[in-house]
Amino acid sequence: MNATHFHFHDPYQPLDSPVHRLDPRVKLILALGFILTATLLPVGAWLSYALLGAAAWMTAHLSGLGIRNVLRRSVLALPFVLAALPVVFTAPGPSWLTLSLGPWQIPVRVEGVIRFLSVLLKSWLSLQIAVILVGTTAFPDLLAAMRAMGVPRFLVMTFGLMWRYLFLLVDEAIRMLRAREARSIAPEVPGHRVGGTLAWRAQVTGRMVGTLFLRTLERGERIYMAMVARGYDGEVRMLPMPPLSGPDRALLAGGLLFLIGILLLGWVSRALFL
Amino acid sequence: MHIPDGFLSPSVALPLWGVSAGIGGYALRRVSRELTERETPVIGVVAAGIFAAQMLNFPIAGGTSGHLIGTALATLLFGPWVAILIMTCVLSLQALIFQDGGLIALGANIFNMGILGALVAYAIDQTLRGIWGDRRWARTAAAFLAGWAAVVMGALATGLELALSGLVPANVVLPAMGGIHALIGVVEGLITVSAVTFLRTVRGELMVERPVAGRVPLWVAGLALTLLLTLLAPLASSDPDGLERVAEDLGFIQAARPPAFELLPDYTIPGLSNRSLAVILAGILGALMAFGLVIVLLLGWRSRQRERVSNSKT
Fold this sequence. Notes:
- The complex is a heterodimer.
- By secondary structure, chain A is mainly alpha-helical.
- Chain A has helices at about 20, 25-40, 45-65, 65-75, 85-90, 110-135, 140-150, 155-185, 200-230, 245-274, and strands spanning about 95-100, 105-110.
- Chain A is flat, with a radius of gyration of 24 Å.
- Chain B has one domain (about 10-245): Arp2/3 complex 21 kDa subunit ARPC3 (Orthogonal Bundle), CATH 1.10.1760.
- Chain B has ten helices and two strands; from the N terminus they run H-H-E-E-H-H-H-H-H-H-H-H.
- Chain B has helices at about 10-35, 40-55, 70-80, 80-100, 105-130, 135-165, 170-200, 215-235, 240-250, 275-314, and strands spanning about 55-60, 65.
- In chain B, strands 1-2 form a two-stranded antiparallel sheet.
- At the A-B interface, helix 2, helix 5, strand 2, helix 6 and helix 8 of A face helix 1, helix 2, strand 1, strand 2 and helix 4 of B.
């Protein structure tokens, strides 16, 4: 970790585009609808996946984030796919080809490959749309949208406080890591041994966690006092969002219809082919 | 352990969303009743602190490193309800902003790492301190096992959910997840112990001594979940689909013999043909649990020794 400041990791890209200007409520609902659609689609609904992908890429292009940028960020979060790999070998049905691994013959199954690719695509599509959502919506707008959608006030307030102090505290953690690296436990360098026993390293890390925790708690208390000094009385007041404009409503309805259409297409084509 | 979107089938992901929302909502009401208005902003900052503490890693070996998840630590410090709330916030933000875990899968992730972890950690800490008394080594051992079990049980639940989604056969994913996380859990346990010990030394008043089994329903729920998962995992692993198929095709199923472990000697499931496989998996799980226990006992013994040394000095 070379970065000194964590806020470079804020995924929001302050650009000006039709997607950025869209009401955050519409974006949040459509993004959740998109992911739900991807989840609900049957295995092997390739046409529906392709349409969802086209929609995601079009949004990525329109948003100014760029398709390549969105793809790069969505690929980073995919190592979990390995967990789905066994299905290629264990699914029921005829085998497609057989891998020879020394004395073993490992069957690769058609059904398994289809399931694996489906999971891969669904997961990848969901990631892309999530990347676009947070890339085009500033966090306070997302919070307002969540509040408008009925997420409890306390949770929204907590998200807001977390967001505000997250970068500060992560910076603190990074400074502590650097201090530790300078004094004792450098990460493994070829040719150099890591200092101390495993238990000792864990203990040092645990004390760092404790220290960070104390600093966090004290900071939290100071923040609370500052809030009280400015009139906080235990109640968080948020401006209600204005009602959705006509074009926003139309876009929301159109988007939801598109998603429902894709879902129907996926299930109907599956029913026809089977 | 953060499950991305697309991995869980809707029939697994959506009910878990409901469960997590329900329990989270209840925790919210409990916490806002119990805490003074003073403490509510502090929770948000502490949640951010847990997020930051997850970045504090330490090198283990061979270029791998371990870090804290924090559910057990939050439970030991604030009690289970606040911990559930904090972890819900941490996991939601991770899913929403950093795509660490999916949004439809968020319910499952909150359940595995937040709710289950907090209940398991709470139940284990309370039970062990109840059995061993409130001695220093007992608190250490209880904190270690609480951290270890929170991670392992969460991993087993994750494995079960993936298996229920028809993605990975239970007898592949459960031993794999359980095995890896039995080691990751050791890291969690060690960090939890030393963080709790540190905080108790530095700011003793923070560690409010909660009465043992003061919240009986929670304690029972956590214990029941722990037992359920410990029993369900080997049972599900003996599911005759999946691995056995491959084993049959590869022709090594005949080679599988009941192993020599006597950890769970009466482990048989009536009516299941692949008993040997079930026994192997039960053996693996049993061995992992025993491994955890040995470490705990060692830790307890060491801290008792240290106590004796410091006593003899004074």
